[in-house]
Amino acid sequence: MTLRLYGIPISGNCYKVELLLKQLGIPYEAVLVNSREGENRRPEYLAKNPLGQIPALELEDGTVLAESAAILVYLAENTPMYGQTQLERAEILKWLFFEQTRIARYIATTRFWLRAGQAEANASLIKQNLQLGTEALRIMDHCLAGKTFFVGERYTIADLALFTYTHVAEQGGFDLKPFPNLQAWCQRVKQTDRFFPLPGA
Amino acid sequence: MTLRLYGIPISGNCYKVELLLKQLGIPYEAVLVNSREGENRRPEYLAKNPLGQIPALELEDGTVLAESAAILVYLAENTPMYGQTQLERAEILKWLFFEQTRIARYIATTRFWLRAGQAEANASLIKQNLQLGTEALRIMDHCLAGKTFFVGERYTIADLALFTYTHVAEQGGFDLKPFPNLQAWCQRVKQTDRFFPLPGA
């Protein structure tokens, strides 16, 4: 048996894991769990992943990993895409937490609402998200000054995770033009080996 | 020079790092950055931590770590409070991300608003947070069934992080009575060596 990835390809959090698997050359089987249809709330899925989110990764022995960022670390451990020193690991984790608490929260959510025609219903939150998400983009742009990638001057899972929702931020109403470092870095990520684009973006 | 912890003791995210430092017996100096007064937005602090949050941990060589959960991993690496295997590390990270994206987001925020007299201004979000936070508590209670701690049957940074805002969830309007596993686990965390209570709770 091989690794099984549960999720839906157009989900950014699923894409992160799928991109890493492909870039590391790890074979896997994709199993569709259509969260847009609520399939992540079905008892048979909750039995595998009580957290009820996608993606989840089932290992050869049946163990199921959850939380996309934790899965990225699991897969990248002992490869150059994770930290080689205690300090590099702390820096990469810092960006993974920043990504989940700011980029995914403010940018991915807003992009989802805009694309799902739910902008009006969430107007006041979108206004706040645009402000807080833009602040997060400014921080990223600032931290990229004079650098090629976020940590250790090489492509790591910090870049892979941050890239996913950042490079489509304009679909959420965010403006990337004021952030040239960020734009150049997006291009560099797109040129990494075995890169493939986010489906449906 | 010793480690320097920037923050404010009543912040749960600062408390997590301070509790771990004390429980691991690591000496440190606490430097007050009063986020309630906006001191985390001052240029001299942003020069140290561009992410602009508290806590931040300054190492002996002047390197500054940020994001509380990443700091926990940094400090606990090579101790029994982090994972001893690749799988244990993935499980601990899963809970650390769950904590930041659900417990801190839904429970800590709601508790803050209630204590700051901002309940009315955030009424519709609080309603949603109570629902989503309660679902997170239910998941935790479910995953604790038959277990003493979340990962590896010993106290780790997953427990420390999850405990912080969970054990004061009632101050945010959440009901812990339906979750006996969670309540028993809170008592076990309080009995760990060198535990001290969250200031101001």
Topology summary:
The structure is a homodimer of 201-residue chains.
Chain A: E1 3-7, H1 12-24, E2 28-32, H2 43-48, E3 56-58, E4 64-66, H3 68-76, H4 86-115, H5 123-143, H6 157-166, H7 180-190
Helix pairs in contact in A: 1-3, 1-6, 4-5, 4-6
CATH class of the largest domain in chain A, please?
Mainly Alpha
Strand content of chain A: 5-15%
Largest sheet of chain A: 4 strands, mixed
Q: Treating each run of at least 4 consecutive H or I residues as one helix, how many helices of chain A?
A: 7
Which structural category do the helix and sheet elements of chain A fall into? Answer: alpha+beta
Order of helices and strands of chain A: EHEHEEHHHHH
CATH architecture field of the largest domain in chain A: Up-down Bundle
Q: Got a strand count of chain A?
A: 4
| Proportion in helices of chain A | 40-55%
Strand order of the largest sheet of chain A: 2-1-3-4
Task: Say what the CATH topology of the largest domain in chain A is.
Answer: Glutathione S-transferase Yfyf (Class Pi), Chain A, domain 2
Q: State the low-pLDDT regions of chain A, or none.
A: none
Taken together, the total number of domains of chain A comes to 2
Please report the two chains with the greatest interface, counting residues with C-beta closer than 8 angstroms to the partner's C-beta: A-B, 31 and 31 residues
Overall outline of chain A: globular
End-to-end C-alpha gap of chain A: 32 Å
Give the overall average pLDDT of chain A. 97
As an assembly, this protein is: homodimer
Rg of chain A (C-alpha, Å): 17 Å
